[in-house]
Design goal:
5% strand, Endonuclease Iii, domain 2, Endonuclease III, domain 1
């Protein structure tokens, strides 16, 4: 207590900026002194990390984590911003710390009472079926959020992995990744620029992981590496260019035909795949997700069918804020739920009889 006022520290994922601001206002008007986070690293304040080297970034995040524990020390209680019941690992550690030090713990949504969002129902279903798509991309995003910087070799690998997703089923590619890494000599730039593109294509076809564009992709490889090297020369490191631009700006720079940094054989969807492979959070607006989020399925009533690219961006942004999931996680869940060789539920001809969220879907209502 300070005078007649109880002190409350807010805890929770900084993805929920709006919920933090609403709780701070409400609790203050109820007669409490409210201590909040200093910045919203997942909701608009990412520019504070720009220009930091890996060591500085890591030490700054450690300082902010410790600082929030000191804020808990100053409080009588903590108030957990757990929108839709979401509590991440960092918040769990803060709750444990508060309990250990005798602080009262209150929640925006009392645990066990929150309605389960359909994305979490899908996640539970996929776990039960032992179905998981590209968890590596989510790992890369988490690593970048922790301060990892990606080297040129990482960018080349991410770009090639993205190319391999074109016109094929990822479940065919995934088991072959160690062999693919050997084909590309662990993504050594000088080797790949000098290697005959036809040899690389033949080796991919031998593994049965080529596609109808593979020869053109391999012919574009040298030019794409030279784009990365130009960025390295102009900015000091490819990653410095990446973190100084928004994801949408990056997609345009790497996919637009008139851009000086256009990557060969890569349109918007494949550029998104590449960006996620280097830890940039976002959604790839491919056929599956545009169909799933259309107005006649899980999208809003006024959304077209299929959803437009902009519709997908808007909807996934809202879903991320509501659930606390990364945009790539949302993409991953929907893709895994829909795609051939994975869930195969919400396909062009959906299997509604097996769908765990059919009661929430407009497709049922329209039939």
């Amino acid at each position: 207590m300070v005078g007649n006022y109880k002190v409350i520290t807010l805890c929770g994922s900084t993805r929920f900026k709006d919920a933090f601001m609403e709780a701070q206002k409400r609790l203050t008007l109820e007669g409490n002194i409210v201590i909040s986070v200093g910045l919203f690293g997942h909701s608009g304040d990412k520019e504070v990390w720009d220009g930091m080297d890996e060591g500085t970034l890591s030490s700054t995040k450690e300082m902010l984590d410790d600082m929030h524990k000191r804020k808990i020390d100053m409080a009588d209680s903590i108030y957990v911003i757990n929108v839709d019941g979401y509590i991440g690992e960092s918040t769990k550690s803060e709750i444990a710390y508060a309990i250990k030090h005798g602080k009262e713990v209150r929640y925006l949504v009392e645990p066990g009472t929150e309605p389960k969002h359909y994305l979490f129902i899908i996640r539970d279903y996929l776990k039960q079926q032992h179905i998981e798509y590209n968890a590596d991309a989510i790992f890369c995003i988490e690593e970048r959020n922790k301060g990892k910087l990606f080297a040129k070799r990482d960018h080349i690998k991410a770009m090639i992995y993205a190319l391999l997703t074109n016109q094929t089923v990822w479940s065919r590619i995934q088991p072959l990744l160690p062999s693919i890494d050997r084909i590309f000599h662990d993504y050594d730039a000088e080797y790949l620029k000098a290697e005959d593109p036809d040899n690389l294509a033949e080796e991919l076809f031998y593994l049965k992981c080529g596609n109808m564009s593979t020869r053109k992709q391999m012919n574009a490889l040298k030019g794409n590496i030279e784009v990365f090297e130009r960025l390295e020369h102009e900015y000091g490191a490819i990653d410095k260019y990446i973190i100084s631009h928004s994801p949408k700006e990056l997609v345009a720079a790497f996919s637009d035909a008139d851009s000086e940094y256009k990557l060969g054989m890569m349109g918007e969807a494949l550029v998104w795949e590449y960006l996620r492979n280097i830890g940039i959070d976002g959604v790839k607006p491919d056929t599956h997700i545009r169909r799933f989020l259309s107005g006649n399925r899980m999208g809003k009533p006024l959304v077209s069918s299929p959803a437009t690219v902009e519709d997908v961006y808007r909807q996934v942004d809202k879903l991320s804020k509501k659930t606390g999931l990364l945009k790539a996680e949302i993409d991953n869940l929907i893709w895994s739920f829909c795609a051939e060789g994975y869930g195969e539920i919400c396909t062009a001809r959906p299997h509604c009889d097996r769908c765990p969220i059919r009661s929430k879907c407009a497709y049922i209502e329209l039939r």
